[in-house]
Amino acid sequence: MSSMITTATWVPRGFAAPFPAKYNFDEDEFERIANLAKLQLDDANEELEEAQEEEKDGANGEKDAGDSEDKASSHDGEAEDIDIDDDDLKKYDLEHYDDDEEDAEGQRMDMFGNIKSLAYYESNKEDPYITIPDGEDDEDDDREELQILATDNLLLAAKVEDELAHLEVYVYEDEADNLYVHHDIMLPAIPLCVEWLDIPVSKPNVEKDSVANFVAIGTMDPDIEVWDLDTIDCMYPNAILGQGANPEEEGKKKKKKKSKKANDEYHVDAVLSLAANRKHRNLLASASADKTVKLWDLHTTKCAKSYSYHTDKVCSLAWHSVESTVLLSGSYDRTIVAADMRAPEAKAPRWGVESDVENVRWDPHDPNFFYVSTENGIIHYHDIRNAPPNPSASKPVWTLQAHDESLSSFDINAHIPGFMATGSTDKTVKLWNIQPTGPAMVVSRNLDVGKVFATNFAPDAEVAFRLAVAGSKGTMHVWDTSTNAAVRQAFAHKISNKTDGEVKERLIGVEEDESSSEEEGGEGDDDENGEPESMDED
């Protein structure tokens, strides 16, 4: 696996700080990181000791028979003792060869042990060892490079590159046709889901209900990490939702870690989906391979409630836009549940599908309906008011065989009614026009991103036709679908720029990625020139 983007999401305009702050490593941050690092190191040592004990127990039987022979042979092979009083050896002082020189000013050298002894100054003018004045021009240049304009969108992409996992934060400049990586965040394991948050989490000196720019990330690890997108070069997340969040309860945590059984406090397996509640902003829902759904309070970073509606891995979540306490969940047990989080004991309506669920979405234009995509490439459209008596009796309003392979991602345009995008492991992206009679395909494209894992419409009305597409090749593209002839015809009433004549299609990617694909004779250039793999119009 060389490089791939597993998931992506947009950040609406106006939430990112114009000038992101540089990471400040002060005394408080040092203490926090030292505790987290010590906890992780202790966990690793404990796991190593357990593995060594198991290996030792397994080998004891084999060792018993040969112990006496080994001891005898080792005794016979011992070399003669070295006489350190020998005149030729005395001059080397071998008795004190390994002794370190005593230094009254010395500091203990272990992990983060010597950092606190370093002198630092608020400005270089106060540092007596710096004689060259600060380059103010360089600082201004750096500041301008980091600047994010009010008309810019951030695009978050979870990427795995040569077994190294990180979150890439892109800036998309629509008017300039520019997409570039602003900064990135290192991750502990393969990322599986990303959710943007508009509330600060464990950020000092900030009101807990103020507007912020954060991200929650679920990985193959059971812990959820929360990072501040307005701070660059961070070493550790602002908060961890899970069993790794409380270094002060180290003893208790270690006992818990040995048990992989699902519980009410934290996940014990990979986190597959995250959903932030936009009305109750401090609530974050998470779905895991441990078959549970958990509700987190971002003010306390604790699990408020755990739910067990499914019998297999829970892979997708979506909050209702009007009934803000109703959560839609889809699972590998081939069922979808719409449950009110306030009534965990109540019987929730349940729908069934023909194969494993991939994604679930509420219809943003009619809150009575929801969409479900499955591993067989089918989309189901259900009316929540027609809940079946049992999952096998489910009757969707319509079904669509959108792809021949797994329908790994899809999105419903929040600003353009009836506009849907689907992406599949068959490497194609398809755009659909959903009419009262059912969906009709507008266009099918291969955008040269490999197997498609992310298809996301931009969240702002000004860029409603922009579709972010990424997949197994590790490249991110933003497709201006309004420049496609078939889309312009299908949604002409929603396109403000109705220029007469032919319009050149816009497919914006990171320059380096585009140049590398050109060297390989990339198919992406053919797509940009208006030669798609296939195109069908209604």
- The backbone outline, from C-alpha atoms, is globular
Find the structural class using helix and strand composition. alpha+beta
Low-confidence stretches: 249-258, 513-538
Taking Cα atoms only, what radius of gyration do you get, to the nearest Å? 29 Å
Q: Average pLDDT across residues?
A: 83
How would you write the strand order of the largest sheet? 1-3-4-5
Distance between the termini: 38 Å
Task: Specify the oligomeric state.
Answer: single chain
Helix fraction?
10-25%
Our estimate of the beta-strand percent is: 25-35%
How does this model look, in words?
This protein is of the alpha+beta class. The protein is 17% helix and 32% strand. The protein has seven helices and 30 strands. It has helices spanning 27-76, 87-90, 136-146, 250-257, 485-490, 511-519, 524-528, and strands at 3-11, 21-22, 153-161, 164-173, 178-186, 191-197, 214-219, 224-228, 231-232, 239-241, 271-276, 283-288, 293-297, 302-307, 314-319, 326-331, 335-340, 350-352, 357-362, 369-374, 378-383, 398-401, 409-412, 419-423, 429-435, 438-445, 452-457, 466-471, 476-480, 506-509. The strands form eight sheets. It has a four-stranded antiparallel sheet with strand order 1-3-4-5, with no helix packed on it. It starts with a strand and ends in a 10-residue tail after the last helix. The model is unreliable at 249-258 and 513-538 (pLDDT under 50).
